[in-house]
Amino acid sequence: MKKQIEGSRAVAESVALCRPDVICAYPISPQTHIVEGLGELVKSGELSPCEFLNVESEFAAMSVAIGSSATGGRTYTATASQGLLFMVEAVYNASGLGLPIVMTVANRAIGAPINIWNDHSDSMSQRDCGWIQLFAESNQEALDLHIQAFRLAEEMSMPVMVCMDGFILTHAYEQVDMPDQTQVDAFLPPYEPRQVLDPDDPVSIGAMVGPEAFMEVRYLAHAKQLMALARIPEIAAEFEQIFGRNAGGLVRPHRVEDAETIVVALGSVIGTLQEVVDTMRDQGEKIGLLSIRAFRPFPLAEVRAALGGAKRVVVLEKSFSVGLGGVVSTDVRLALSGIQLHGYTVVAGLGGRAITQDSLLRVLGEAIEDKLEALTFLDLDWDIVNRHLAREAETRRSGPIAENLLRDLGVVGAKVY
Amino acid sequence: MTQPIKFYQTGTFTVGNRLLPPEQRSVQSSIARDNSLNSGHRACQGCGEALGARYAVDAAMRATHGRLIAANATGCLEVFSTPYPESSWQLPWLHSLFGNAAAVGSGIAAALRVKAHKAGQEQSDIRVIAQGGDGGTTDIGFGCLSGMFERNDDVLYICYDNEGYMNTGVQRSSATPPAARTATTMPMGPEPGAEFGKGKNVPLIAMAHEIPYVATATVADLRDLEAKVEKAMSLHGSRYLHVFVPCPLGWGSASCDTIKLARLARETGLFPVFEAENGQVTDVTTIRRRVPVEEYLRPQKRFAHLFGDPGRPDLIARIQAGADRNIERFGLLGSQTSEAS
Amino acid sequence: MKKPFAITLDPDSALANKTGAWRTERPVYVDRLPPCNRECPAGEDIQGWLYHAESGDYEAAWRHLTRDNPFPAIMGRVCYHTCESVCNRAKLDAAVGINSVEGFLGNEALRRGWQFESPAQESGHHVLVIGAGPSGLSAAYHLRRLGHAVTVLEAGPMPGGMMRFGIPKYRLPRNVLDAEVKRIADMGVTFRYNEKVTQLVEAMRDEKADACFLAIGAHIAKRAYIPAKDSSRILDAVSVLRSMEEGDKPLLGRKVAIYGGGNTAIDVARTARRLGATDAVIVYRRNRESMPAHDFELEEALEEGVMVKWLSTISSADEGEITIEKMELDEAGHPQPTGELETLAADSLVLALGQDIDMSLLETVPDLTFEEGRVVVDPETMMTGHPGLFAGGDMSAGERNVTVAIGQAKRAARHMDAWLRGANLGPKSEKAVADFDRLNTWYYSDAPKTIRPKLDAARRTSSFDEVQGALTEDTALFEARRCLSCGNCFECDNCYGVCPDNAVIKLGTGQGFQINLDYCKGCGICAAECPCGAIDMVPEES
After folding, report:
1. Cα gap B108→A99, rounded to integer Å
2. Total count of domains within chain A
3. Which of A311, B181, C141, C471 would suit a FRET pair with C187, their CA atoms being 20 to 30 Å apart?
4. A63 touching B, CB under 8 A?
């Protein structure tokens, strides 16, 4: 059924269709509308039976989810940014215990400086936590990925993080095709836990494991992710059969066949990039686009296959490894081991900075001419940066960089300075 | 002080009593007790926590007819009971993290409730306990604990209080008593050991949440402990049981003195044993043979710096004053009698 | 369920970890000798029978008790219960009223008609018991239990000996005595009364006896020389107490003086009060601390109005009065005459200075030796120098009281049995005593002693009703349950409960416990928390 609704609402309804048993929620922007929606559905009785717990922190949210999932309950929670960081210990624990929890991360920057707007720093900080990480390009895909996520998580007995861009998707009203319950039920069987806390068959879950077995446990988690690599496209195909749409999978290439230049990105920026690529194609540039939908497990082979024939690759990412550069770029580079081509990293949209078509056209043009810096920051205000660096060179000033920059802009403490 | 006699030969104080009718016997006296925490665990000799955990969990197992799931915080209890490849637990048991046992318990309870609803029942016949040491309860797990209390989730949380971080090598926790030596409160300076005026009383904080049931107990009062677990399991909502469990390793006491020290903690007034319902104290176990705090402190090496020549009689007096304050505050010498059986 | 590797474990998998290897000491269950048992002259297993009484199984308790002593109802009335003076519970609140419980069991047995079982097998031996006093009766009982044919020859008309002729009715009602004796007769013991044995050698030959136990009481009153007018009335205690039994009440008058400091003196004084004497005055040459009579008997006598002249000897007796010389203690504590005289009104003077034994029947028995008017026996076997001839009770050395006599006779009977079988009993096993220090008294609830109801002192002095009232079942049970079971496991389950490693195996009621050495880490909590000190920690051999 087609609906014109907010992305968060779409996700909430989609999650509800998955018949979760336990939902735990702690509010953080921009995730709030999702759990508000679910809370309403539970309170109204539309989603029943289901337990909705208002917990006291994200750490508790993930901990409640761990308990619930280990007891055989289909369990969902959502968070973002600082909230994800606050629950990190439990995030690792959930995957270590192999608990198929599904969590939405409404991607948002990490402070300080505190910033509520979108980038991918939060999810990327958890790329090694053992969860499957799926990125949604659109509200429709966010909705669809949640249905696939429960299927995948429960089949693999590992948790899945569905990443969707904060505000850009969560707060955007778009038309979505909301599946009906019969379709979802046909696709998603009831949860049959691989291990469960059951007095009739007691087990101890969460043993302390020493050097004699820890490496094996870790390797097995990796092996499971590799298995997921095979299952993700299959599940996407089954999904398409039932729901009639393509969603999910490992990667989605766009006009890469004869492309000399391929842009790699993930999330909602794909929509903008697709238009830019189409525009440039119309102008005769041999350019294509690769959307990475599964960031963990990382589809090395699929990325290599898609990019291997190009002359240059531009990774546009909303994440940044301070002191190194791109996060996604590093993984893409690994996929291209041994292949000689030009590689560029464009860090864009940090803290919600708008990514405009004009800017994209500009940097991609520079890339095609191989004039682009290997590490480029899209629309960085070099005046501010240089002024600060110059002053820094004179006197080492203590205090947060952010505050000093704002001082330069005349926003803070202007009279003092 | 004379207490009324319930059954004569051994009073209410021994574990069992062949003279009692079976229904009045303690869980621990039964050949058929669950031994929920079974032999082969790696707790130190004379571990009070191992003992307290078996007492409490077995009592909960009996109260629930074996329909019980446990969440466990990181700590000694977790480490000594479940080092791969050996578990000592006989009930479904989950260890997640140091600071989240209460929340994990909440999650288990939530899932059970949904399962019950799906089966057309109002509530599950399976019950939940969450447990941890004092570090996992009064410090790092305190947020989750308070959250569980505040939501009144259907979990009995059991804190095994040995007054410090023993698993990590005996550091101070917010349950460490004043003057006690730990690795982070060394017996040096003008106020050796843990400082006075610090620490928190979690049972009282639990009461402030006005949850249905809060109680304290010791491994020296088995029947009392079992009665409290049974009472707790007869109720729904958040319940809290704080069990005093001496630690021979961390306290520098003889392994055979574990129960004696727990008894002395109670008899000095240093550890008040009481129960409270909905935020109100409803019963206090009165002191039977009152003793000065020296008798409790002296056998423990963690207080050794208070004794000897010249020793610190001033600090002992302050500890005694603390005990006296408890006695006054909780009416530990009161005329009411304990319902230990 | 396909469980995840390593992080999920099966229940009880830790049983593979045998923590017993950590141990440097191991707990060992021990049975120690409770002080009461050690003290009991009759060798009763007091803690053992209290164990049954505690659970309300009075018959089992009675049967356990009567393995050592066939007279619990009598004991409950006349035994001086030295056991209670050493009871560890006295250090806690008050000694367990062992004697009361014993009396209760005895009464209960009489009320319910419990009988001794006849021996399962006859030995084919015939043994003779001379004298039907406590010692003879006890020997007869034990010998019969062991399967021997037993004939008791008694010079008097009735059984009981000093229990009948020496102990007043108010302490031992005769129906109780008769009933407990009858139960022995019912086992198949032959009693023949009014048969005074004058020559033992002949008697044994005539009766075809294989062995003999000699238990003639001390019935001859000792006399002291007291210058006396003919008109003075001087009697001896044995005759006074005997005449109480045989019908003619002795004429003692309103004012009675009794000379002596033993229990018999007190018995006479209390008897005199009951016979209507206004003044019953005991004259004793030493002070109270040196008095051989039991203090509680003196106390009861004082409550009844009996008076005592301490540090006094009688120098002469006249009609209606006696003359007393005051004594004083020298530095060594011996009484010395002072020459200071006083007179005391006395209608009669009863001498209670001890009793002697008529040994004439032993004149032709070879190999015997005598010392201080008693026949010398091996203190362990109770056998005299003459093979097969054993002796006990007043005839042999030791304190002369009913319980001692019963105990000696038991020992003699067991050794006689061995002798008859040509066997040797071997040395007694010596168990260590269960001292108070070994107890963990926390576990015993506070429970003061139940005081047996006493007849009002006023009523006591005017009747021969039994002075010691019996315990009711409730109070007897209470009293039994006050037993601390010193040094002997009473299955309180403490060790089983307090082990942090579940390394104590409970074997079930009556079976006790066992240490599971696979898991016992040797922490010692079980030993520390054992209420009765029945667990020792023993170093492991490395």
Report:
1. 13
2. 3
3. C471
4. yes
Q: Who among A57, A72, A207 is closest to B111 (CB)?
A: A72
A370 lies in the same domain as A388: no
The partner residue sitting opposite C446, judged by closest CB among B3, B35, B88, is B3
Tens-digit pLDDT profile for chain A (417 aa)? 999 999 999 999 999 999 999 999 999 999 999 999 999 999 999 999 999 999 999 999 999 999 999 999 999 999 999 999 999 999 999 999 999 999 999 999 999 999 999 999 999 999 999 999 999 999 999 999 999 999 999 999 999 999 999 999 999 999 999 999 999 999 999 999 989 999 999 999 999 999 999 999 999 999 999 999 999 999 999 999 999 999 999 999 999 999 999 999 999 999 999 999 999 999 999 999 999 999 999 999 999 999 999 999 999 999 999 999 999 999 999 999 999 999 999 999 999 999 999 999 999 999 999 999 999 999 999 999 999 999 888 876 566 777 777 766 666 554 444
Q: Are residues A179 and A33 in the same domain?
A: yes
Within 8 A of C6 by CB-CB distance, chain A residues are 207, 209, 213-214, 216-217
For residue C49, the enclosing domain spans: 35-115+436-480
Average pLDDT, chain B: 93
A-proximal residues of C, 3-32, CB under 8 Å: 3-11
Going by DSSP bridges, is the β-strand pair A160-165/A132-135 parallel, antiparallel, or unpaired? parallel
The H or E element containing residue C136 is helix C134-145
Query: Does residue C284 sit in the same domain as residue C321?
Result: yes
> Which of A183, A211, A243 lies at the terminal end of a domain, its last residue?
A243
Q: What is the rounded average pLDDT for all residues in chain C?
A: 90
- Give the model's pLDDT for residue C380: 87
Q: How far is C519 from chain A (nearest CA, A)?
A: 21
Q: Are residues C231 and C344 in the same domain?
A: yes
Q: Which of residues 190-219 of B touch A (CB under 8 A)?
A: none
Name the residue with higher pLDDT: A59 or C508.
Answer: A59
**Together in a domain, A360 and A284:** yes
**What is the rounded CA–CA span in Å between residue C388 and residue C15?**
62
Q: Tell me, yes or no, whether A50 and A195 share the same domain.
A: yes
Query: How far B111 CA sits from the closest chain A CA (Å)?
Result: 5
- B residues 28-47 near C, CB within 8 Å? 28-29, 31, 35, 38-43, 45-47
Among the partner-chain residues C1, C6, C10, the one whose CB lies closest to the CB of A217 is C6
Query: For a pLDDT cut of 90, what percent of chain C falls above it?
Result: 62
On the question of a cis peptide bond just before residue A193, with omega within 30 degrees of 0, the verdict is no
CA end-to-end span of chain A? 59
Q: Are residues A163 and A46 in the same domain?
A: yes
Specify whether C235 is located in the same domain as C344: yes
Residues A294, A212 share a domain:
no
Whole-angstrom Cα distance, residue A83 to residue C236? 106
- Which residues in chain B have Cβ-Cβ distances shorter than 8 Å to A203? 92-93
Instruction: List the CATH code of the domain at B22-330.
Output: 3.40.50.970
What ipTM, to 2 d.p.?
Answer: 0.94
A57 contacts in chain B (CB < 8 Å):
143-144, 147
How far apart are the C-alpha atoms of B270 and B319, rounded to whole Å? 8
d(CA B97, CA C353): 87
B19 or C335: which leads in pLDDT: C335
C411 and C460 in a common domain: no
Number of structural domains chain C divides into:
4
**Residues C309 and C261 both lie in one domain:** yes
On whether both A257 and A301 belong to a single domain, the answer is: yes
Q: Residue A208, class by beta-carbon neighbours within 10 Å (0-12 exposed, 13-18 middle, 19+ buried)?
A: middle
Separation CA A74–CA A59 (nearest Å): 19
List the domain range (segments joined by +) for residue A299: 251-377
CA-to-CA distance for C246 and B120, rounded, in angstroms? 89
Chain B residues closer than 8 Å to A207 by CB? 82-85, 87, 95
Distance CA B336, CA B265 (A): 20
**Which of B:84-103 have CB within 8 Å of C?**
84-91
Domain match, A403 and A306 both? no
Q: Is C333 found in the same domain as C379?
A: no
